[in-house]
Amino acid sequence: MDWNFATVWEAIAALQPDRAAIIQGDDIVTWKAFNAGANALASALADRASGRQAKVGTYLRNAPAFLTTYFAAYKAGLVPFNINFRYGPDELAYLIDDADAEAIVFHAEFAASVDLVRARLPKVTTWIAVPQSGHAVPSWALPFDDITDRATADDFAAPWGRCGDDAMMLYTGGTTGMPKGVVWRQADAFRATGGGGNAVGGVAPMDDLAQGMARLAAAGARQVRLICPPLMHGAGLSPAQGTLSGGGSVILLQSRGFDAAEAWTAAARHRAEAVNIVGAAFAVPLAEALERNGDAWDLSCVKAIFSSGAMLDGQTRLTLLHYCTNAVVIDKLGASEISSLAEAITRPGQAPETAIFAPAKGFALIGETGEVLEIKPGARGQLASSYLVPVGYYKDARKTAETFREINGVRYAVPGDFAQIEADGHVRLLGRNSQCINTGGEKVFAEEVEEALKTHPAVRDAAVIGVPDRRFGATVFAVLELQPAASVTLADLLQHAATRLASYKLPRGMRVVPRVARLANGKIDYRQIKAMIEADAMSPGPDITTAGVT
């Protein structure tokens, strides 16, 4: 099938116009309204676009407008892309310019930020503002509601048409450099996000559109999914699009910051079958809310809690399963450049082990000289996938060649994570090369050490970085966020971690902080943490602990 999201979503809207497509608080957008609003917006965008595959940016918080904009862009044969709403003016201008954007849809609260960079972005000819309470739509922008209020049931078709080769663009977070736009064919992205199936409900991807619609009409295959991360990140957008493609309902939270009680209330109220989060930044508050007030919510509806982008520690998974008694916790290992590499499923009563995964379709390991390794115990290399590989990075041939490699006639995505194969054939995640610490010639992956430290009962969260050392080049340094009222010494930490790590991987120093800095997508903000430690090294304070461990 020549899959295109818009064609699938239009068919679903025709089949079930009165079912909920998007839920946020008391606001319920039916499939009929979702489709009609997107038709009007698609017409407006196409009228102002230079042609097929012009770029449309979403500078939005989680809201129905975000998904409506994507639907409209797909209808109009345009390319939607995400914008991090936490970016400063220079980052914002860089990303919009890099994407060659012609239209930007933004929340009115960001009008001042947009106004700072508009003059630097002459390619952008259309600014559309989504109104918010207390924030006026600027005179230089079109009001989003004025456009979508002209909703029509007639499915929009641009003069240049649409197809499965039409692109969507997912900008990476830029944690190790400037953001890069990963270009996906819609046909591949559709399959990567479930292909209109329901993995939790045991429903396979669609074989074709007619079969998928017949299945929806005949059975309760629809899914209700709570999306906790921002839609501006793949960890939020991908499961949202996958849920919609299966005719399901997407629940979005209202709070600007993550509110665990709001999340559980929404899940219980709307009977969410699946919950999507990103690692400890979401899982720990969710677990703590349950421990404080777990009886307040009937969570028997929850069948799966998905975490991607950052691993969960074992104790947090057990706490979630204790209260979500019908659920499993699924850690998914993937990236913006890969649909899924591997996953780890923890079931009630099972002893969870952190960073151990079962390989997914297309899984491969790439050796130091670029060869594809045999998947056998002891094999160690860069994670790769040959399944549904993106087109590449937008306008960056060099980085595309580095990440998307053809080996023996097969194309692989190699995003930069390292792993090794355990004796039982499972995959142990080591970490990303960009966070690899070279200490005395030995390689230490920060994520591996972090996961070991987080198994200490006093540690709520951990980040590990390399700090300069005259003798070893760099040494391992731990930044810790502790459980309330807990305390730990470096000696305690070392004794605990030594049961899980080789001696050269153990921290030589540590600092306790109120909160480990993380990005909006839940991943550790290594740049901020390194800057903090470097500043402290110039003028060490009493909360810096160092020790010579051999």
What does the model show?
This protein is of the alpha/beta class and 550 residues long. Helix 1 packs antiparallel against helix 2 (31-48), helix 2 packs across helix 3 and helix 4 (89-98) packs across helix 5 (111-117). The model is unreliable at 538-550 (pLDDT under 50). The termini are far apart. The chain has a 13-stranded mixed sheet, sandwiched between helices. A five-stranded parallel sheet has the order 4-3-5-6-7, sandwiched between helices. A four-stranded mixed sheet has the order 26-27-28-29, sandwiched between helices. Helices cover 30% and strands 27% of the residues. It has three domains: 1-212, Rossmann fold (3-Layer(aba) Sandwich); 358-432, Luciferase, domain 3, CATH 2.30.38.10; 440-546, GMP Synthetase, Chain A, domain 3 (2-Layer Sandwich), CATH 3.30.300.30. Helix 15 (490-497) links the parallel strand 27 (473-482) and strand 28 (509-512). It has 16 helices and 29 strands.
Instruction: Examine the coordinates and then state which fold CATH places here, giving the name of the CATH topology of the largest domain.
Output: Rossmann fold
> What structural class is derived from the secondary structure elements?
alpha/beta
Strand line-up in the sheet with most strands? 2-1-11-10-12-13-14-15-16-23-22-18-17
**Radius of gyration, in angstroms, nearest whole number:** 23 Å
User: Which blocks of ≥5 consecutive residues have pLDDT under 50?
Assistant: 538-550
Globally, the shape reads: globular
Number of helices: 16
Number of domains: 3
Strand content: 25-35%
Q: Main β-sheet: number of strands, strand sense, barrel status? A: 13 strands, mixed
**Quick check: average pLDDT?**
90
Helix content, binned percent: 25-40%
CATH architectural arrangement of the largest domain: 3-Layer(aba) Sandwich
Tell how many strands the DSSP assignment holds: 29
